[in-house]
Amino acid sequence: MSQKIIQRLCVIGVGLIGGSLARGLKKAGVVTEVVGAGRNVAHLEKAKELGVIDSFETDISQAVKGCDMVVLAVPLGAMQSVFEQISSVITEEMIITDVGSAKASVVKAAQQAFKSLPDTLVPGHPIAGTEKSGVEASFAELFDNRRIILTPLETSSSEAVSKVRKMWQACGADVVETSIEHHDEVLAATSHLPHMLAYSLVDTLAKMDEKKEIFDFAAGGFRDFTRIASSDPEMWHDICISNKDALVTMIKKFTDDLELLAKAIEANDSVYLKEIFSRAKKARDEFCEDKNINDSPE
Ligand code: NAP
User: Which strands make up the sheet holding 121-122, listed edge to edge?
Assistant: First the structure.
């Protein structure tokens, strides 16, 4: 029998990420009891019916009582309000972590809610997800072989970091640690910028007169490139606002490069074009090899 890592887990926000974490921990047999918390009773009832949680509360301050692990899996824009709701009931035994896609904004929200940061707080971010939302889209294997980035604070105790690490490892994840600043810069480049490009491309095409015909002719390449434009608009609104500085820097950098590309095409600059395409192909081939990805192009 697996050893329990967590006795009573509270997942605040039982959606894709929170639901998948609860499922993963239950599947691994490392949690005794899971309490779900959120706003919408119908969604929480569904989560209970699916066996993702054992019980639920809509009063978040009640839900966390007696828990040794509390995971905030709500949209970034809701983090501060949730921290405020739990601030008067947290205890020294209660480890608190989150799954937010940007980290500086979560720490700022915690600082404003708690005034002084508890040493049980360990911010985190799973580099795993899909374009779907809600508990029905959650699955136990979501974090299997995926990376989890923890951004421990100066105040975070080593016991708290160790327990959060063990929780994710039990779901099959590879846990790494980095600084908040580095996390937000890297994620702006590798995740937030690509989402902006996908949304922006689909929106540009959707606004064009020939929209119907354009989408009729769209093939696998378009589908692959734009899959992430089906992601939840509210979540991505929050991510943009939360990681504004790093994301705008990346968008500007990309816009400059795109401008150079347009000029090279206009000037029939074959050398420049082949140089870019070859460099990009090499970088992506190496990335795929490294990650064991086999997605041969159409
Ligand atoms: P989701 O499926 O929409 O789930 C969000 C959950 O939060 C829902 O259960 C929702 O409950 C609840 N919620 C929303 N606002 C709330 C509030 N004010 N108070 C209490 N509960 C609230 O979203 P998700 O994809 O799991 O994303 C959750 C977090 O994970 C976000 O911070 C996101 O940045 C991060 N993340 C997402 C991905 C991804 O690919 N999706 C990857 C890594 C990290 P209701 O049902 O009541 O609305």
Answer: 55-57, 31-37, 6-12, 69-72, 95-98, 121-122
Site to substitute for ligand 1 among 56, 64, 71, 74, most atoms within 8 A of C-beta: 74
User: In the beta sheet, which residues pair with residue 33?
Assistant: 8
Q: Are 79 and 109 in contact (CB under 8 A)?
A: yes
CA dihedral 196, 198, 202, 207 (to 10 degrees): 20
For residue 126, the SS3 value is strand
pLDDT tens for residues 208-259? 877 678 888 888 888 999 999 999 999 999 999 999 999 999 999 999 999 9
Of 153, 144, 145, 90, give the one whose Cα is nearest residue 124: 153
Distance of CA 195 to the CA centre of its chain: 12
Structural domains present in the chain: 6-178 (3.40.50.720), 183-288 (1.10.3660.10)
Residue 230's CB is within 10 A of a number of other CB atoms, namely: 13
Which residue has its alpha carbon closest to ligand 1 atom 35?
100
Angle formed at CA 74 by CA 246 and CA 148, multiple of 5 degrees: 60
Residues having CB closer than 6 A to ligand 1 are 13-18, 38-40, 43, 73-76, 78, 81-82, 99-101, 125-126, 129, 133-134, 232, 235, 239
Which of 169, 174, 175, 184 has its CA nearest to residue 150?
Answer: 175
pTM of the model: 0.94
